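Dear support,

I submitted the protein below through the web form. The confirmation email said the job was done, but the results page showed an empty box. After a refresh the structure appeared. I'm attaching both so you can tell me whether what I see now is the final result or a partial one.
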Amino acid sequence: MTTTTDSELPATLESTRPARWPKVLLAFLLGLGLALLLAVGGVFAYEQAHAGKIGSGVHAGSVDLSGLTREQAAAKLTAAYASLGVGQLALTLPDGTRTVSYADLGRRLDVNAMLDAALAVGRSGNPLTRVADEIRTAIHGTTVAPVVTFDQTALKASLSKVAASVASSPISASIRSSTGGYVGGASVDGRSLSVDALARQVMIALGSPTGSAQATIDMAADLTAVSPAISSAQASQAAAAGNAEVASIVLTHETDKWTIPAATVAAWLTIGIAPDGSYGVRADPAKVTASLNALAKQIDRKAVDASFLVSKSNKVVGVVAGKDGRALDVAGSVILIQSLLTQRAAGVISSAPISPAIAVISPNLSTAAATSAAPQMRAISSWTTYYAVGAHNGNSANITVPAMAIDGTIVAPGAVFNFWKTVGEVSLAKGYKLGGAIINGHSVEGKTIGGGICSTSTTLFNAALRAGLETGARANHYYYITRYPKGLDATVWEDGSAVQNMTFTNDTPYPILIRTYAKPGIVRFTLYSVPTGRTVSISKPIVKNYIKGYTVVKYTKSLKPGHYLQSEYQADGQDVWVTVTVKDKTGHVISTKTYYSHYARMIGVIMKGVA
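What the results page shows now:
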């Protein structure tokens, strides 16, 4: 039995149905593609027609920009929002208000940003998306929010002027001196306004395009207090420290004491900036130094050489002890005093004296050296000069006075004997008289204080020479004087700053004692020391260029008839060389020195009175 179902179809029908569906689908797809091409073409055509223009339905705030070019839209927006630059901003402070116009702040619409946004509507995505956006915008519209901006240069310039008008410089406290001491003054704080912080407030307050034409900002929060370099408290503290410094200062050394009065200390103090940058009262080092230099005259003490006790027979029989000297170390003492004042200023108050910086000066000849040498001291050389007493030597005063000033002088080992330093001042008050001198090549009688003193210097020079000592400064006279060894005279003179001296050095290891014998017509120096065995040989003078002097007689009515006056003495002109050789006790030559002297020829003059 055969059964049939509904699913069974005729063979002819099954073979023909599948062939119709592909054709329908293909037709549909072709139609859809054609429609899309037409839509895209329409979009391209629309965009070509509206290139550079804002789409329909686009607004910037309340301003319709549909179909406008960028330039047209910019003009329309600028006109529509011109009011953004109209108005005033009030900036308030505790002491008043400053006003600034919106225009000065550079407030305006950000036209370019808004135009960029408006032109971008419907211009993004694929063609279909752009078509959809264009249609939607045209039907429903799109609004670009207004954007407010500021010209930063104008904004900062305007606010900088405000800040400058608000700012004030701090006033530092100062110290002044009064009859009661130092007093500290009051300081005043300054203030400054932060331009950047204020600019941020302005942009927030005026950032909305719907704001009113009047706005207010409280600037108090942006004010910054500026502290002075010196506060009232610092000035008061510095004044108190300065007052603490004013007190007397006591200096002590050994058993001596010196007091610097409080008034002197006060005179040292000055108000100002210290080297470390601090402000206050401090001692001026220059003033402290000046005070200590003056005080040094009281503190300084010369060292005293040990000396010898000599019997009437010129034998050394004992020693007088020497004594150390002292000199105030001014620079070191200034540091000590400044340290004391610093302690006082810090509140460390002490009335205890301080020891100044002292330099100890040892004598040239110590007591120990003198004591060691005393038993061995002997006369090692001597020289005597005989002279005629007369007006030309102050009747012997000008020879005897300096000779006795030298008596007892001790020249320590290595020390230098200096004639003028030893003799000291030459004055009438010291017993000198007017005497003769060679001035400009001529003998001048009775015009020079101490004239004739060269007999003293020449005598001592020859004693030192014959002791084998090292000679220093020495010069011969203008012309040869016969009472002196030829070629071995030693003149001395002073003429203002010009000085001719006579010096020698004790180049032995033992002290030398100089003893003097002087009375009218004779002067003698004897040197005592520990004999070293030195021997001295002096050559005979070598004389060259000899020119004999002579005397002439001149007649004058200034003298009584028959009276004579010798105004110049004759002397032979000559060049002289004398060589001195010194040997030690073994015969070894210690030194050889040749002394040269040029003596001018002098023509003697005798004045004879005539009627």
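Response: this is the final, complete result; the empty box was a page-load delay. The longest helix spans residues 21-49.
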